[in-house]
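User: For a benchmark we're assembling, each entry needs the component sequences followed by a predicted structure for the full assembly. Here are entry 17's components. Please fill in the structure.
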Amino acid sequence: SQQGEEDPQALSIQEGENATMNCSYKTSINNLQWYRQNSGRGLVHLILIRSNEREKHSGRLRVTLDTSKKSSSLLITASRAADTASYFCAMDEPLSGTYKYIFGTGTRLKVLA
Amino acid sequence: DAGITQSPRYKITETGRQVTLMCHQTWSHSYMFWYRQDLGHGLRLIYYSAAADITDKGEVPDGYVVSRSKTENFPLTLESATRSQTSVYFCASSEVHEQFFGPGTRLTVL
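Assistant: Structure for entry 17:
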């Protein structure tokens, strides 16, 4: 069954620096999403990348996907204190025939002002 | 109010009691999900539903029961609460890929 793991578990950077988070998964996917969670809140969708895409951008976010390595990365450029949050990847299970996703363990990002 | 709501937001109960967590969405999304979030485990899927009267198990379904008689509601019941079910529970809904999450219910089982 699908499993997701993120690396690093926690990351602390200075404002203005770039933050990179990595996600590895076990089984083949059609789609992978990234979500953000502010402390004590529900998750918010950031971006979706399909298995036939290698890179996708949204504002200061850049997501890459390497299906041969079963991994994805999320890059946040020019980070701000407001980017402090936990970030999760989520992978679908194509064989399920549903829109069910399995979430990774998350990366806690702290951006210091 | 439009969106997805959960109630209660906080709940303290005792071992062995039955507890029901409520989830309501106003978008008429087909899919609804229940997750639990524990430190070190991320979000784990408990149950999900693809439509009214269609539910299926997720990664950690033991000890939980769900029903979905109406599209907009997806209650989660802990039939006999255990301390290991102390967690933060999130409900989410989606029509296709993007999931919309509720604010969560913090449940403590003493």
